[in-house]
Amino acid sequence: MREDIFATKLQWFKENEKPEVVLLVADNPELVRIVVAWTNTKVDRTENVSALRDQSENSAWEWLWANARFCEDELLAKSGQSRYTFNQELTKLIGNRILYPDGTINSFVQRYLREKVLNLFDARPSKRRNATVRK
Predict the structure, then answer these.
(1) Residue 91: C-alpha distances to residues 5, 51, 77, 97, 106 (Å)
(2) Does residue 135 lie in a domain region?
C-alpha cells in the first residue's frame, strides 16, 4: 500500500515540474555532471516505506527522499566531483527537484541536456538533410 503512495506522490511531482530549474543547471558543468551521473546510478526504495505523516508538498518531497536509497560514493565517483562540494551540489539538485528519488530527472532538464548534446554534435536531423557537400 505504501509503495502505491510513493509512486502516486512521485508522479504528482513529475506532473507539476517547473521549467525554471533548467536555469540552475545551464552553464554549470558541476551540476550537469551530477545530473548525468544520477541517471546512471542505481536507485531503490527502502524495503519498508515509512508512513507519510504530513500531506504538505515539502513534507512529501522529503518523505520520498527519506525512502530512496542510493550509494553516494558511487554517484560521487561517476560524477567526477570533489567530495568538498559534492554534498552541497547534490542538496541543491534535490532541493530544487531536479533529481527524482527513482533515478530519473526533471523532464525540462533532460530536454535541455539532450538539446545541448545535439547542438554539440550538430546532430539535428533537419540540419543533416539540408547540409551541402562542398568540394
Answers:
(1) 24, 23, 17, 10, 15
(2) no
